[in-house]
Amino acid sequence: MGSQTQPAPFVDRRKNVRHNESPAWTWFLVVVTALLVAGFLQAHLPGAMGVKGKELYKPGDNVGYYIGLVGGLLMLIMLLYPLRKRVKFMKSFGILPSWFRWHMVLGILGPALVMFHTTFIIHSINAGVALICMMLVSGSGIFGRFFYTKIHNGLYGRQLSLKGMREEMDKTGSFDRSFMVFAPDIVNRIGKFCVRADATKGGFGEFAAIGFEAASLTKSLTKELHHVMYTQAHEKNWDTGPIKKDVDALYAEHSLHIRNSIRVARDTAQFRTYERLFSLWHIFHIPLVYMMVFSGIYHVISVHMY
After folding, report:
1. What's the pTM?
2. φ and ψ of 159, to 5 deg
3. Which of 123, 193, 270, 306 has the smallest CB count inside 10 Å?
4. Residue 34: pLDDT over 70
């Protein structure tokens, strides 16, 4: 089990493993959410300036008006993304992933600014309708992004085919010969899980069951791997001294292999369900966008007329 006999690291052998997404999106949501919470508290409780935020400006004065104007313009710009996908002459305007990225960012920033424009208070019925439609669209977009990532290779990658996911599962389904020798039960259990996962039909019950089983199996098999490896290492006095680093490295490599094998099998099983969920979400999301646009236009017209 020394370093001279170890197989090449797993991470080097699998060049096509999907990379983890950048945490930038998560941090973006955290910052925007924190600002909204702070704005809501400032609007209703005396802040650092000794007055409530809703007393600093109103939706109809210069400050409130221009905050709402910028928020509304951002949401209008956001609507260029579906046009970029469908209008023929726009198909040459930049790459679609970049459009999608800005569509998501503006879909959060625009509603956030509109919330500050309202001072976190619904002042009229038409404003309330426009605000609710806007929040539904924004929340729906966050859910849609989650489904999108499950059927795409990363957030901005090309759409994965079911065949491609199965090929990835095949690549991660074979373990090193050394692993077969000292942990055959683990290999067999992963193989049985892959067979069950591949036989699923895409139902919502199977979707949940395979997810729970994958999480449970990953936890139990990594724990079993630790027990098997370190028991054998202890018997051969490999759990002390410099060679322990080799044992730790080999355990990390094989536990990563377990997690990746189960993950790919789970994702393959759940792929059809996520496709269905994404299609259903799309049916729900598009009418909300129209409702938001029409209610927003009506709100702007009514404000300027009355």
Report:
1. 0.65
2. -65, 135
3. 306
4. yes
Bridge partners of 152, per DSSP, are 159
The domain limits of the chain are 3-14+160-276, 24-158+281-305
How far is the first Cα of the chain from the last one, in angstroms, to the nearest whole number?
81
Q: What is the pLDDT of residues 241-287, one digit of tens each?
A: 778 888 888 888 888 888 888 888 888 888 878 888 888 888 888 88
Of 259, 252, 251, 221, the closest CA to residue 17 belongs to 259
pLDDT given at position 5:
42
Measured distance CA(200)–CA(177) in Å, rounded: 29
Distances (CA, A) of 263 to 3, 216, 298: 28, 12, 48
Are 81 and 102 contacting, i.e. CB atoms less than 8 angstroms apart? yes
How crowded is the C-beta side of 286, counted as CA atoms within 13 Å? 7
- What is the length of the chain? 306
306 SS3 class: coil
Residue type at 163?
K
Consecutive H or E run containing 295: helix 243-305
Sign for the pseudo-dihedral over CA of 35, 41, 43, 47: negative
Contacts of 64 (CB under 8 A, 6+ apart): 57, 58, 117, 119
For residues 276 and 201, is the Cβ–Cβ distance under 8 A?
no
Contact 150, 267 (CB under 8 A): yes
Nearby residues of 18 by Cβ (< 8 Å), 6 or more positions away: 153, 154
What pLDDT, on the 0 to 100 scale, is given for residue 22? 63
pLDDT tens for 39-56 read 888 887 766 556 666 677
Record the tokens describing residue 205, joined without a space: 């019950």
Q: Are 60 and 188 in contact (CB under 8 A)?
A: no
Report which of 286, 285, 293, 290 is spatially closest to residue 143, judged by C-alpha positions.
Answer: 285
* Secondary structure element (H or E) that encloses residue 185, with its range: helix 184-198
